[in-house]
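TL;DR need structure tokens for one chain.
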Amino acid sequence: ALLEGASLLGVAAVVTEQYPEKLGRTLGPLSERLEAMSAPRFSKLDFSACRDAAVDAWLAKSDRRQAIVIGMEAHICVFQTVRDLCARGFKVHVPLDGVASRRDDHRAAGLDLCRAAGATITTTETILFDWLGRAGTDAFRKISKLIK
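>> reply
TL;DR here they are.
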């Protein structure tokens, strides 16, 4: 839903994949949506996406100062990326329904660590309606269908 909303509203996305040769690529439906959005894709070995030279160069060229971080593992890659983005002055949001870990306690710990690093813990629905700003538009109707 978050990627569909981002695509509908023209919000940019970027993809990082942790060691895809061994851990696998982004799941098909997500990967297809990201490709349709022309999202740059980076393969990385560093747990924090910010420590990857190609991602770092992409961030340096970007004029964005806000990030929404989704993915897995919440207590490893998500947390370390969030920590580094916050340290660089980004306003970071982490939708609690957009991150995962293999264990629920690790996911909870990851969200706590992200909050301690300075991120706002939120939900996909909150982000989508914040992007919209108002009801009654075609975009509102389309996004409302995504979250039902």
